[in-house]
Q: What sequence folds into this?
């Protein structure tokens, strides 16, 4: 008997904690390590990847301003998220519309708090990085002409009143998640949301001086290429990290993310090559990002074959939106935030409703697996996001205008360049 008791005691101490306390929320060290690494990867996407990607596409006289606006968006969003953004998104739901203030300034959360198998603090930080990059994506539509002070006010208001409610709808126990909408890592919450907001802001601000009349060359395609590479790298944390566990679904999300990005890059390159007779590096980089955007809502729900199709369509649709649709309509989306993130995000959300495979994630079943209703649910989630973001962003923009006395820089400042007129700096030292 004593020998049997010793064996049982030994098993108790050497079994993983999660096995001993099955059914309880306990920290898994592997899951925690993976989500912490993923958080760092997504963090890098904003002040490094996106800053370089957008900065390289902006004109030389506005490169530093683009970097500054990306950096300040990350800083402001980080603070707002910890004070009230997180609780609005993930607090106790109020009729499925918004989270309560039970976690205001992260109250009620401490070092021993657990969410699933990871510390709640880690979950808070991971979700923070999503809020940060979403508002920073909006910037792509308005570089070269928006006041720095107005951007600061807009960022705080937009995270509070637009991003946090939509995050709650989908991930925080809100009505969209309860309806069954599938958004693994941010098709509606991040990309459609940011793309539509960028378009609204661009239309209200108006076109840049000289738009359509003079060439507006990117300052550095090399920087944009480096930024795209960093975004691609960080996106593995964005998508695979959204599983919040180091498991097979995370591995599958990792695989399909890379495949869709590669296919998107090739599709855009060949489409541009066929139409314009030249395969540009900028087009290749844009196609990669298009493929990443489209696979984001589907990453944890689809297989390899679906990711090939999703990336292929994203590259073609992205190219058409930027090269054809924008010119036909005539709006000035400076760095194509709507064409890449908005349009490809919509395709990705619909594709999730088509290709969601229950053998990847149980309960996620799309049109091709006998559930046409899922495609309808995805369409409703897209439409609801577009309507709410459009109306909400318009209101936020006009509140921002009232607070700051205007949205757009003076004509002389825009002509001179915002690096010099607003920041008193130059990105490049030109030797004559």
A:
């Amino acid at each position: 008997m004593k020998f049997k008791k010793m064996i049982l005691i030994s098993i108790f101490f050497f079994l993983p904690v999660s096995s001993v306390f099955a059914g309880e929320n306990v920290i898994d060290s592997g899951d925690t390590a993976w989500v912490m690494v993923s958080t760092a990867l997504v963090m890098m996407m904003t002040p490094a990847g996106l800053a370089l990607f957008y900065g390289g596409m902006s004109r030389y006289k506005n490169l530093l301003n683009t970097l500054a606006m990306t950096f300040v968006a990350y800083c402001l969003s980080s603070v707002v998220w910890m004070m009230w953004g997180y609780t609005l998104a993930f607090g106790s739901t109020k009729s499925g519309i918004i989270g309560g203030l039970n976690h205001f300034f992260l109250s009620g959360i401490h070092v021993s708090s657990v969410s699933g198998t990871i510390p709640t603090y880690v979950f808070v930080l991971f979700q923070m990085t999503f809020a940060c990059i979403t508002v920073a994506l909006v910037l792509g539509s308005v570089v070269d002409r928006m006041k720095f002070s107005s951007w600061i006010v807009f960022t705080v208001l937009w995270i509070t009143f637009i991003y946090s409610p939509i995050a709650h709808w989908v991930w925080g126990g809100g009505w969209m998640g309860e309806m069954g909408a599938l958004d693994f890592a941010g098709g509606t919450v991040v990309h459609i949301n940011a793309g539509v907001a960028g378009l609204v802001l661009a239309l209200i601000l108006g076109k840049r001086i000289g738009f359509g009349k003079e060439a507006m060359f990117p300052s550095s395609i090399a920087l944009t290429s480096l930024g795209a590479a960093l975004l691609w790298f960080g996106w593995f944390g964005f998508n695979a990290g959204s599983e919040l566990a180091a498991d097979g679904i995370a591995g599958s999300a990792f695989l399909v993310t890379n495949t869709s990005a590669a296919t998107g890059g090739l599709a855009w390159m060949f489409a541009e090559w066929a139409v314009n007779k030249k395969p540009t590096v900028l087009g290749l980089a844009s196609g990669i990002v298009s493929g990443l955007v489209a696979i984001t809502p589907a990453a944890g729900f689809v297989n390899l074959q679906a990711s090939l199709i999703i990336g292929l369509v994203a590259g073609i649709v992205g190219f058409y939106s930027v090269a054809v649709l924008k010119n036909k309509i005539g709006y000035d989306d400076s760095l194509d935030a709507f064409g890449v993130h908005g349009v490809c995000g919509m395709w990705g959300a619909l594709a999730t409703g088509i290709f969601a495979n229950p053998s990847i994630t149980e309960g996620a079943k799309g049109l091709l697996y006998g559930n046409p209703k899922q495609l309808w649910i995805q369409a409703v989630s897209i439409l609801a996001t577009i309507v709410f973001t459009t109306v909400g962003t318009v209101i936020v923009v006009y509140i921002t205008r009232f607070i700051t006395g205007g949205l757009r820089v003076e004509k002389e400042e825009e002509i001179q360049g915002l690096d010099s007129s607003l920041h008193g700096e130059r990105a490049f030292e030109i030797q004559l």
Summary: The mean pLDDT is 93. The chain has one domain: 27-420.
